[in-house]
Design goal:
Distance between the termini: 34 Å
Strand order of the largest sheet: 3-2-1-4-5-6-7-8
Number of strands: 8
Radius of gyration: 18 Å
Strand content: 15-25%
Largest sheet: 8 strands, mixed
Order of helices and strands: EHEHEHEHEHHEHHEE
Helix content: 40-55%
Length: 257
């Protein structure tokens, strides 16, 4: 079981959805030391609500533009200095805007990569860190094709590739940092609204019909299962959370050097 006691947790994500439900559960159940939230805009009321759930945890917010590498670097430097070291990084930013290719790839993949790389000096046990864990939010569409949302699927496949690569045992042995990828199925979040406006192209009506009529899980169910997956402490692992159930993804090796 992962021991959250006294840990400094950094969360990159919004104030709704799976990621924020994860923060609620951590604040209610765990004895964290600090919680740092980075996002493009602050929600003051939600920050107050989080702080009230566990007054012993110091909660702070810093603004970041995940489309801007300089913004990420400056924010990570400030967060790292404020915390001293980062124990857990939760990369939970998630956007579905397939007609805006740059934003979809930029936030879901490039922003996540830059955020992780800039956080690593504050996690790496050979630098300023004590080791730790990076949890990256992918999707079932990071494992399977998504004909209606091809750009989103490309970004989320990239998250899987980055996480599996960084989760190599040689990197862990040197840095003490574990990597995991979470792949939720259809979830009742704001991102599921206006799906027809966000398809890759205009030949997806029947595909969107099927998605809209499918049963969905609730964000809090996914958050509960993410904590269970983290407790497994399995470096390089990938996990599907579908209909409130957790399942590890075992990918066969197709090629080896």
């Amino acid at each position: 079981m992962y021991d959250w006691t006294g840990k400094n947790v950094m969360y990159a994500g919004g104030f709704t959805g799976i990621g924020f439900q994860l923060l609620h559960q951590l604040m209610q159940r765990q004895k964290l030391k600090m919680l740092g939230i980075v996002h493009r805009m602050e929600n003051v009321e939600m920050m107050k609500k989080l702080q009230a759930e566990n007054p012993s945890v110091k909660v702070m917010f810093m603004q970041v533009n995940l489309m801007d590498k300089v913004s990420i670097e400056q924010t990570m430097k400030k967060m790292g200095q404020a915390m001293g070291n980062i124990d857990v990084l939760l990369n939970c930013e998630d956007v579905l805007l397939d007609k805006d290719v740059e934003t979809t790839i930029g936030i879901n993949l490039m922003g996540m990569i830059h955020m992780t790389l800039k956080a690593m000096p504050y996690m790496d046990k050979t630098q300023m860190g004590l080791g730790g864990m990076v949890v990256n939010m992918s999707s079932v569409y990071g494992l399977e094709p998504a004909p209606a949302f091809a750009v989103y699927a490309a970004a989320k496949h990239g998250v899987i590739g980055f996480t599996r690569s960084m989760g190599d045992k040689h990197i862990y042995q040197k840095t003490g940092i574990m990597f995991m990828a979470m792949c939720p199925g259809l979830t009742n979040t704001e991102m599921m609204m206006n799906l027809r406006d966000n398809v890759t192209w205009d030949h997806s009506e029947s595909l969107v019909d099927a998605i809209e009529s499918a049963k969905r899980q609730m964000p809090e169910e996914v958050a509960t299962q993410i904590i269970k997956a983290i407790d497994m402490m399995k470096n390089g692992s990938m996990w599907i959370v579908d209909m409130g159930q957790l399942k590890e993804v075992n990918t066969p090796m197709h090629w080896q050097m």
